């Protein structure tokens, strides 16, 4: 089989000019076998298992990068939801467990470790509640640990007690890290229908039905999709979709290939490739720019949701053909602070939370890395979470909220988190009172759609 | 390669404890388990799916037989580029299978398909040495295993 020169040059252009990389290779590690009735022993078990299992993860990924000339931006770890591993312990114990996870992540050389998580869509166990209460302190006192809480599913409905509690926890987390513009909240995701094999931080955790160890991959590549869309400037929609689909095929194949190699070399099973398009704050690595290249003046223009739907579907078509195991989120991410185009749209007031809520229905998660004024009430945040959950639950899809009420700041100001987290212009969230609705308590029943047997 | 994972090892250990009954000291159990594993695994191969000892020996970078590498280089044209690159490849015992070169307005591009199966130099070193040759000519040299192109551009 002869490889043609244009194909080689295209690959080089993708990696060298268009920032094509594999966004993350995430090793999922089961910690259920670490459970112990003694806290020091539990902590030791977790540390030992992580150090033993992931010892070669970063080094292996780096070897694969060198061999195939495709860079892997992040090497990460996800673990069994810690509420399960530490059930029975108190909140202060969970803070200690978070410290152990942080130490292991540090020594293993990974930037983030996901799985300080609880699944409470139907109700809380004692461990779930303790873990959630530990989140503000755990996220403030650690560097690498990420937390997520699943509060709703299509089968169980929406746990509104958890939604309200998370509204308060988000406020508390922001206030604890007030000196850094509430950065703790950037490591905290509230989910509906959370996937168990998601490789993307901050929402990654190693689901309870997963094997002992597994490698999952998240692709990237807004830059190459942007080029494909630009090349299709004068075409109609079917041709535009075709351009995106073909490019998505190539980047997914690269992602799948790299993931399989990393798994194979460590002799552990390969899980899935998550075909989400994930932006970074780097110029040219933006989802918003893709939507603009389709013919919108800016994100937020009427037609934005349709453009995103087209993009998302075309990426899936290419990706599904390219990989036998597609999983995780597999949709486009539209984080505000991590996407240059979204940042400028938010600054100009072109994109609003209401429009983003609409976009949620056709993208990967929804309200992601959004900063709101520091005086936003917990009930308002809870209401936003409930709305996002309703979209997820009713449409049988994953939705999520990662929101930062920036302490002491208001509309017109910005929070700069630096690096991958980027800059978040503070966006207005409606102040219309919803407290009676949020305070009702209990669970919003599962939709008829969830009863499908 | 044997693929014993932790749960299999645990199962063997439990079996050993049952067999040994009263004499199940940690040392005895370990001995029985070791024997059981060595019966299952071919000699010289460690077993656990997540054994760090074994991981140390993972031959990441050993090029497989028939491994083909694609070297791409581009930059401003100057005299002796091709000679420099091919001389170094020859020194590395890398066989040139195919070569395609273009010069467009002083901009030099080359693609060389290399068979490295006769080379005893590790892949990383080939990569590094070729990059160094590139530097002397002000070229960007990219060395990649052929499989990535096959994967991305062929169904």
Describe the structure.
The complex is a heterodimer of chains A (453) and B (155). Chain A has 15 helices and 13 strands. Chain A is of the alpha/beta class and 453 residues long. In chain A, strands 1, 2, 3, 4, 5, 6, 7, 8, 9, 10 and 13 form an eleven-stranded mixed sheet that branches. Chain A is globular, with a radius of gyration of 21 Å. The mean pLDDT of chain A is 95. Chain B folds into two domains: 6-56; 68-153, ACT domain (Alpha-Beta Plaits, 2-Layer Sandwich), CATH 3.30.70.260. Chain B is built from six helices and four strands, in the order H-H-H-E-H-E-E-H-E-H. The longest helix of chain B has 15 residues, at 6-20. At the A-B interface, helix 1, helix 3 and helix 9 of A face helix 3, strand 3, helix 5, strand 4 and helix 6 of B. Chain B: This is ACT domain-containing protein. Chain B: Pfam families: ACT_6. Chain B: Residues 70-144 form the ACT domain. Chain A: Homodimer.
Low-confidence stretches of chain A: none
Q: What is the CATH-assigned architecture of the largest domain in chain B?
A: 2-Layer Sandwich
User: Regarding CATH, which class of the largest domain in chain B?
Assistant: Alpha Beta
Which structural class matches the secondary elements of chain B? alpha+beta
Unreliable spans of chain B? 41-52, 54-65
InterPro entries (chain B): ACT-like_dom_sf, ACT_dom, UPF0237_ACT
Domain ACT (chain B): 70-144
Protein name (chain B): ACT domain-containing protein
Organism (chain B): Caldithrix abyssi
């Amino acid at each position: 089989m002869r490889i043609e020169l244009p194909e080689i040059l295209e690959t080089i252009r993708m990696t060298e000019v268009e920032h094509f990389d594999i966004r993350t290779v995430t090793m999922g590690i089961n910690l259920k076998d670490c459970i112990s009735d003694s806290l020091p022993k539990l902590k030791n078990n977790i540390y030992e298992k992580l150090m033993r299992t992931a010892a070669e993860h970063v080094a292996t990924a780096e070897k694969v990068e060198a061999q195939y000339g495709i860079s892997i931006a992040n090497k990460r770890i996800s673990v069994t939801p810690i509420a399960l591993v530490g059930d029975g312990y108190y909140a202060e114990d969970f803070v200690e467990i978070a410290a152990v996870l942080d130490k292991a992540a540090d020594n293993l050389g990974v930037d983030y470790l996901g799985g300080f998580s609880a699944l409470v869509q139907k109700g809380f166990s004692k461990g779930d509640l303790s873990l959630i209460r530990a989140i503000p302190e755990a996220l403030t006192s650690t560097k690498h640990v990420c937390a997520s809480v699943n509060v709703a599913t299509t089968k169980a409905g929406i746990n509104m007690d958890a939604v309200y509690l998370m509204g308060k926890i988000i406020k508390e987390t922001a206030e604890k890290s007030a000196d850094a513009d509430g950065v703790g909240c950037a490591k905290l995701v509230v989910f509906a229908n959370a996937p168990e094999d998601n490789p993307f931080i901050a929402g990654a955790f190693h689901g309870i039905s997963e094997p002992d160890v597994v490698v999952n991959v998240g692709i990237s590549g807004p830059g190459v999709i942007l080029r494909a869309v630009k090349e299709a400037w004068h075409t109609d929609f079917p041709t535009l979709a075709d351009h995106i689909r073909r490019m998505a095929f190539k980047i997914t194949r690269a992602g799948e290939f790299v993931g399989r190699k990393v798994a194979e070399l460590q002799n552990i099973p390969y899980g899935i490739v998550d075909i989400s398009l994930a932006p970074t704050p780097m110029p040219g690595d933006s989802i918003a720019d893709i939507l603009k290249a389709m013919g919108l003046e800016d994100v937020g223009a009427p037609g934005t949701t349709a453009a995103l739907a087209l993009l998302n579907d075309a990426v899936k078509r290419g990706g599904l053909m390219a990989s036998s195991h597609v999983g995780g989120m597999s949709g486009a991410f539209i984080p505000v602070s991590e996407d240059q185009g979204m940042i400028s749209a938010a600054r100009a007031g072109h994109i609003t939370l209401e429009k983003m809520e609409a976009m949620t229905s056709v993208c990967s998660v929804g309200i992601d890395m959004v900063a709101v004024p520091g005086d936003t009430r917990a009930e308002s945040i809870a209401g936003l979470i409930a709305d996002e959950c309703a979209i997820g639950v009713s449409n049988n899809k994953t939705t999520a909220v990662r929101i930062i009420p920036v302490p002491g700041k208001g509309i017109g100001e910005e929070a700069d988190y630096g690096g991958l987290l980027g800059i978040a212009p503070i966006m207005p969230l409606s102040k219309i009172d919803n407290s009676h609705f949020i305070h009702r308590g209990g669970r919003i029943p599962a939709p008829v759609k969830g009863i499908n047997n | 390669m044997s693929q014993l994972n932790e749960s299999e090892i645990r199962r063997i250990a439990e079996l050993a404890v049952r067999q040994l009954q009263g004499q199940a000291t940690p040392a005895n159990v370990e001995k029985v388990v070791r024997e059981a594993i060595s019966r299952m695994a071919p000699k010289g191969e460690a077993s656990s799916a997540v054994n760090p000892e074994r991981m140390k020996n993972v031959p990441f970078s050993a090029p497989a037989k028939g491994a083909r590498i694609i070297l791409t280089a581009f930059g401003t044209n100057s005299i002796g580029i091709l000679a420099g690159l091919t001389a170094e490849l020859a020194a590395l015992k890398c066989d040139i299978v195919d070569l395609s070169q273009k010069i467009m307005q002083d901009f030099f591009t080359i693609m060389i398909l290399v068979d490295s199966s006769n080379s005893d130099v590790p892949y990383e070193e080939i990569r590094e040495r070729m990059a160094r040759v590139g530097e002397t000519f002000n070229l960007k040299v990219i060395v990649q295993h052929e499989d990535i192109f096959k994967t991305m551009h062929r169904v």
